[in-house]
């Protein structure tokens, strides 16, 4: 088993006034050659956007882009004509494929929006761009792990990769084991809130731990806690 620990305070940081962003991996003006990606997981940004502000229209291609609002609402528009509001408890995915342009704005003028933006290298390149969004009942992850992104689960949003994203909300002292979905995959665990021990590694809020060359990980909540697990291939051609 191999691991890599990313403490919250070691992340890259950019504050533009309208956007306060923490980067787990190299992004924008933050470049760390030792932190470019974790397998197929290329970008993990922890963003806060001011009222009425956001990312104006810009292009992407050949990337699976997942947005998870933690509080507040995002207004999504793209070059296919889609116009959607993404709310807390929603998960959105955009397969950029052969090329798409989109904007992501704070839908509200009276409160910030906090969300995670994650990019995953695709399994198949140059597909027709696609979009999917689903709402998940937060009670369905109380002391259990809820899959929200998957290539093989119609209850989750579909991703063009052998990758699975899962959310859990745990009570203090809750324990569980997470089975990695596919041989050759690793899992990146991110602590949204609270304190968690994973395989004897003690993690605090916004810490990240990558684990690979194992079949499963053991999780214990040292306090009430919320966690995001990202299960991705570790070998990606060209990554």
Structure summary:
This protein is an all-beta fold and 239 residues long. 0% of the residues lie in helices and 55% in strands. Strand 18 (196-198) and strand 19 form a beta hairpin.
Class from helix and strand fractions: mainly beta
> What would the CATH topology of the largest domain be?
Jelly Rolls
CATH architecture type of the largest domain: Sandwich
In terms of per-residue confidence, which ranges show pLDDT below 50 for 5 or more consecutive residues?
none
- Approximate shape: globular
Helix content percent band: under 10%
Q: What's the CATH H-level homologous superfamily of the largest domain?
A: Jelly Rolls
Could you please describe the fold and organization of this structure?
There is one protein chain. With 239 residues, this protein is an all-beta fold. It contains no helices and 22 strands. It has strands spanning 2-6, 12-15, 19-23, 41-49, 54-60, 64-71, 73-78, 83-87, 90-95, 100-106, 113-120, 130-135, 145-150, 157-158, 164-170, 175-179, 185-193, 196-198, 201-203, 208-212, 216-221, 225-233. The chain has a seven-stranded mixed β-sheet with strand order 1-20-17-22-15-13-14, with no helix packed on it. A seven-stranded antiparallel β-sheet has the order 2-3-4-11-6-9-12, with no helix packed on it. The protein has a four-stranded antiparallel β-sheet with strand order 5-10-7-8, with no helix packed on it. The chain is globular.
């Amino acid at each position: 088993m191999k691991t890599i620990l990313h403490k919250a305070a070691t992340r890259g940081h950019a504050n533009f006034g309208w956007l306060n962003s923490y980067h787990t991996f190299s992004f924008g003006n933050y470049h760390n050659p030792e932190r470019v990606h974790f397998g197929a997981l290329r970008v993990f940004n922890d963003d806060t956007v001011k009222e009425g502000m956001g990312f104006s229209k810009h292009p992407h291609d050949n990337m699976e882009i997942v947005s998870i609002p933690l509080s507040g609402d995002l207004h999504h528009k793209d070059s296919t004509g889609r116009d959607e509001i993404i709310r807390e408890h929603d998960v959105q995915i955009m397969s950029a494929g052969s090329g798409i342009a989109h904007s992501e704005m704070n839908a509200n003028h009276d409160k910030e929006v906090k969300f995670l933006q994650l990019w995953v290298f695709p399994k198949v390149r140059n597909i027709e761009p696609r979009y999917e969004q689903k709402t998940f009942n937060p009670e369905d992850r109380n002391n259990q792990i809820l899959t929200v992104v998957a290539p093989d689960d119609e209850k989750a949003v579909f991703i063009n990769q052998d990758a699975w994203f899962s959310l859990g909300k745990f009570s203090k002292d809750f324990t569980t084991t997470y089975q990695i979905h596919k041989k050759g995959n690793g899992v990146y665990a991110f602590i949204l809130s609270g304190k968690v021990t994973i395989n004897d590694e003690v993690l605090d809020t916004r810490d990240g731990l990558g684990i690979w060359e194992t079949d499963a990980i053991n999780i214990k909540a040292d306090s009430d806690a919320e966690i995001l697990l990202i299960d991705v291939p570790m070998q990606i051609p060209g990554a």
